[in-house]
Amino acid sequence: MTDFSTEQTVARTDIPIADLIDLRETRSQALAPDGGLMACISNRSGLPQIWFCDPDGGNMRQATDLPERVDQIAFSPKNRDLLFTTDVGMDERFQLWLLPQASGQAYPLTSAPGVVHKWGAWKPCGTQIAWTANDRDPYLMDVVVMDLATGQTERVRKGAGFQEVLAWTPDGGSLILRDSTRGTADQDLLLLSLQTGEVRPFLPRAGRTIFRSVKLHKDGSGAFVLCDQARDFHAVQWLDFAEQRVSVLASIEGHDIDAFALTPDHARMALAVNRDGYTTLMATGDTLADLREIALPFAGVATSLACAPDGDLLATLESPVQPPSVWRCNPATGRCTQVTPPVPGKVDLRSLAMPEPARLASFDGTVVPYLVYPPMGEKPAAGWPVLFIVHGGPEMQWLPNFRADVQHYLSRGIMVIAPNVRGSTGYGRPYHQADDAGKRMDAVGDLLELARAIAARPDVDASRIGVMGQSYGGFMVLAALTEAPELWRTGVDIYGISNFTTLMETTGPWRRAMRAAEYGDPVRDAGFLASISPVHALRRVRAPLLVVHCADDPRVPPEQGEQVFSRLRGLGYPVEILRVPHEGHGFSRVSSKQRAYGTVAAWLANTL
């Protein structure tokens, strides 16, 4: 057996992984309708919970102390009743809870731990809520409405696949549904009449479309729809109800609009524009066509946009060197202030490193964007070791957000490369669809092409290149290790896909059809799914492999990691596995992050 041990990377700054993970995060703000209270989700206590804060900053106080994470929050449109969702062990079988008047005792609205309750929307008058659930059939999501005064529920539409409630119409008589029966990249927007049960298209269908959000105009004249209908990039489109005509209201050539927020009078709008993953915030002036940029306090990512009654913009901001927190920006003056104060930690954020954008022409000429994170300290004589980190999805994008683990690797003198291979979002629909169906392995080809190019750099040690990824990124790790075993010194597979055939059998049934639309039909495409499953080619692996998997993962069940571990162990190959209890498709607890990423850090120190 080859000896994979190596002299550990000499620590130049060596920021402990525990100290970086201990930098707490606050995100997903929601503003009460009176504008006097802000709720957000923070892991300041060690687990994501609801915290309250003054909208202009400060006075953070914890509102819930549950044994499980809080995932979503939404104020009633009429008062301070706060709805939130929570699950068990990140199993995504969410239950709905209510915190009355943001001050009472929280209580569950649903109590079916084995059922997925996908939060939807409040009725404009605040008397009812709507969601989708799979209690009737684990494969299908039905639309359910609850009267909050009586607790009575009504199943108003049976599902034929995966559907979600996006909004109520202003008159409260209908629901707007997003139907993903054909997959998350080919959705329908539907209007469900609660009086007649009739369902009709809310927006005329014009080819494959991804609908991100819908906001109804307060006067009932139309709707603002963020989608890529008949376009390569997402734009805010206007649906005029009277004329039944759709027009583009706000678009940025060559870039996605990731999110938008409306002022209370719906006269102005703020946009989050995606430019190579970085957010450019823009706001309209006297007209919706008059767009002006809002200067952010730092280069990074903005999410959870919301407008306060005075027109100020609330957003969660983060960057590679700034953990997520909530900021308040004045579009007129450009002034941005931090609303949620940071938790003091041991890390000097000024010592952290920002990435540099780059591009590479892949094997067929496709241009692949990626980020290069520069290592800290003095370059070793043989060059820097390199770690590739591949994002999940694949319908996702590596964003320049805060990653505690990345900053630790940099402090240990490891260069990090984060590619957005074909299939990633953020670069237009053709690029997003470039890995569909039989083109799945072209994305792996992008990764290998990039690895060879980085290995050829004069400042890189080509004998010390590793690859790591989570979820679909874990599949990319296993595929890279089997397709080009000579390239890699080590690998880390974090709840990755190893066998598409068994994945389609064991993943959460409510999401199975959506995964089939992305990866292939388990019956019709059985041969293809088997051919791209790395589990069948593990004999080719040369590098030592660490497998990390969570016990309650509903998306990529633990059997995917166990297949890899048991087969490699049976072959006598160097493989280790970390089984993380009471976590799902990710890590909700700070203690779990410490354990998981601490194990990964130790593994890389010994193998890379």
Main sheet properties: 8 strands, mixed
β-strand number: 36
Give the structural class. Answer: alpha+beta
Looking across the biggest beta sheet, what order are the strands in? Answer: 29-30-32-31-33-34-35-36
Mean pLDDT: 93
Q: Which band does the percent of strand residues land in?
A: 25-35%
- Rg over C-alpha atoms, rounded to the nearest angstrom: 24 Å
Could you give the distance between the termini?
17 Å
**Tally the helices: what do you get?**
10
Provide the CATH top-level class of the domain at 353-607: Alpha Beta
- Uncertain spans, ≥5 residues at pLDDT below 50? 1-11
The coarse overall form would be: globular
CATH superfamily of the domain at 353-607: Alpha/Beta hydrolase fold, catalytic domain
CATH fold group of the domain at 353-607: Rossmann fold
Under the CATH scheme, which architecture of the domain at 353-607 would be assigned?
3-Layer(aba) Sandwich
> Share of helix among residues?
10-25%
Describe this structure in words.
This protein is of the alpha+beta class and 608 residues long. Among the domains are: 25-108; 353-607, Rossmann fold, CATH 3.40.50. It has an 8-stranded mixed β-sheet, with helices on both faces. Helix 4 crosses helix 5 (472-483). The protein starts with 16 loop residues before the first helix and ends with a helix. The model is unreliable at 1-11 (pLDDT under 50).
